[in-house]
Amino acid sequence: MNSTKKKPTPALNILGLTETDHKILELTASGFTSKEIAFKINLSETAVDKLRGEMINKTRSRNTASLVSFAYKFGLLKV
Questions:
Q1: DSSP letter (8 states) at residue 8
Q2: Cβ atoms of 67 and 21 closer than 8 Å
Q3: How far apart are CA 39 and CA 33, in angstroms?
Q4: CA 45 to chain centre
Q5: Which helix (H) or strand (E) holds 10?
Q6: What is the mean pLDDT of residues 43-47?
Q7: Tens digit of pLDDT for each residue in 1-34?
Q8: What domains are defined for the chain?
Q9: Is the dihedral of CA 26, 40, 17, 8 positive or negative?
Q10: pLDDT at 52
């Protein structure tokens, strides 16, 4: 039986990032605002900002731009 759910990459597992974190990361890299992301994934804007902040801390990034750069560099996001 084929599952349509993507399996987390090893980097996601090592960093402790969830599928929701990954979706926020993908949408952030695509240029969506926190408000737009919140609407798309059915969370509050505050929750999106909080989760993004936690990802910045987990990856030891300085800001959102460096978080996205980190994600591409380590294969969390594909071009």
A1: P
A2: no
A3: 10
A4: 14
A5: helix 10-15
A6: 98
A7: 444 445 556 666 678 889 999 999 999 999 999 9
A8: 26-79 (1.10.10.10)
A9: negative
A10: 98
